[in-house]
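Me: I keep going back and forth on a fold encoding question. No explanation is needed for now; the record alone will do.

Assistant:
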Amino acid sequence: MSTPAPHPAYPFDARPLTEPVDKAALKAWNAEARRSGGSAVVPGCAAAFVIVFCAIFVLIGVTLVPTLLASVDGLAAAVPMLLLPLMFVALPTVVIVLLLRGMLGGRETGYRLDRFARANGMTFVPRAEDPGLPGMIFHRGRRRQAQLRVRGERPRFVEFGNYRYTTGSGKNQTTHRWGYVAIHLDAPLPHIVLDALGNNSIFGSNLPTTFDRDQRLSLEGDFDRHFALYCPRGYERDALYLFTPDIMARFIDHAGQLDVEIVDDWLFLYTRRDVATLDPATWAWLFSMVSALMDKLAQWGRWRDERLAAAGAAPVAPGAAPLPFGAAGVVTPPPIAGAPRGVAAPGRRLRTGWSWAAILVGVIALAWFVLRTIGVMGYLPF
């Protein structure tokens, strides 16, 4: 995989991701991370708990196995009992080795990403519980945690991170893994979602939220072959102002496998794999993608919601209302340039809907329940 050249706005130095690690520097970094409460590895109390549990397990084995062997008559009956010491020693050993490998690997990953961030004029933030961002993935389930975040402040705030949340319980518990890029915008915009068609499954979108299909907007050119765009009803013209042909081309070229969400004054890019990794090619792709979009986001800051002006929130500057973009991609003025920043209530959030996969699962579950009930009544053999 070739490494694309990032935009000069984001200097790119990938050496900290792969160069040899100074063990003394790693140890010092981890000690400082523990003192500041920012360690990216298994918490010390959790590690101590696992080690104590394994020690108790071994102690039980040392006490119990001789008693069991003494109560067995004959060598043939004692042979299976000889496997017990192996179990009571091998299992804790394997658990502790895996724990230590995970801790050391996590320490090195955090250390490398911290140095990588510093080398590129950014900062590293190991993790945050429930980060509270407004994107669709950040308010679902429980145990919500952003991990291994690398963030920059110039030319605008951008954060790369991994995200986890848990749904269900017991045997049906599932941990959902996402990678995301969060870019702060100059002004609140209507809630718009670009569902990348290239990463969907046979059951439909891989997004955690399904949107009412009446809100889907078809755009010109090849854009509909790559993304399904959803915008609030009545904001179609605004979406056409925001997604000019050149911006659409950049999304296709650089973010064709990523889902995109614009909500409030944030732009989010989502993927089902980690983005904060030690892979230089992944970072080169991310930096190149963000840089390609960065210089086009400034014009989004000029957008204003004419509905706020119509409600008397501020005087309206004279000017003609914008028209949809033509084939030539002529940029029209932003809607009502004198209106205040913000989005009227109808444009702040998309309406959710039901996916065909969810409906199918519901029908199957209902059919199973009905047939099960009939079977209990004696009409079916199950």
